[in-house]
Amino acid sequence: MTSDSTPSVRASSALQREPSLVDQTGAGLSGLEQLRALLASGRKPGILVSLDFDFVEAEEGLAVFAGTPGPHAYNPIGTVHGGYAATLLDSACGCAVHSRLSAEQAYTTLELKVAYHKAITRHSGLLRAEGRVLSFGQRVAYAEAKLTDAQGRLLASATSTLLVFARPSV
Fold first, then answer.
1. Which of 37, 73, 108, 160 has a CB 3.0–4.6 Å from the CB of 26, allowing a cystine?
2. Where does the source fall among the domains of life (predicted)?
């Protein structure tokens, strides 16, 4: 059996990634520069379109997303699905870490722990997920995010562990 037929080699070659909006709008830039280029472009990654929320701010170690949940985000019991809140929080944590990357680095979420503090409905109004980097090492970063309603009340919070690695070629 040759090394080309081993499961790990086949799996890694099958996981070719598509060029991302970050690749298209900010190739060769630092993470913060990439995020700012994405914001300036007005383009939205698919998840923001699907769940109808926006990327609104990026600073070093900080990322903010906002959205008003509508019927598309409801679960069968009449509140906003926890996955909507988790997605906002994961996006905020991930992009906060992204803002600290060099042009040669990428990241992926290893763990996301979400705590739900209050039920979310359409009456919650505009939701704001603010993510901040807690620590950033050579291989691992830690971030936290808070999701608040239009009155600033805490609805959910999250902590995240993220793997930092060399950016793969497209």
1. 37
2. Bacteria
What is the count of structural domains for the chain? Answer: 1
The pTM for the full model equals 0.86
Q: DSSP class of residue 72?
A: G
Domain contains 1: no
Domain presence at residue 9: no
Regarding predicted confidence, which is higher, 170 or 94? 94
Residues spanned by the domain of 125 = 26-166
Residues 6+ apart with CB under 8 A from 67: 51, 52, 53, 54, 88, 126, 127
What CA–CA distance (Å, rounded) separates 148 from 42?
24
Q: H-helix or E-strand containing 140?
A: strand 140-148
